């Protein structure tokens, strides 16, 4: 139960951090210049943030699991 809550919190935290970084670092209006579809661009940005956050969170959780194995041995 605690492990599942830790995984959920980790995923949500890294998705939030990746969304903040993607919106602050990259000027998406200049990338998609001439496009008036701002709603679709924001949804695409959200999907990028979810994918990136999930990948980084999985890496973080793997590092935590490996460190637990090293400590127990």
TrEMBL record:
Keyword Membrane applies: yes
Q: What name does this protein carry? A: DUF1146 domain-containing protein
Q: Which residues cross the membrane?
A: 12-31, 43-66
Give a yes or no for keyword Transmembrane in this entry.
yes
Which keywords has UniProt assigned to this entry? Membrane, Transmembrane, Transmembrane helix
Q: Which domain of life is it from?
A: Bacteria
Instruction: Please tell me the species this chain comes from.
Output: Streptococcus suis
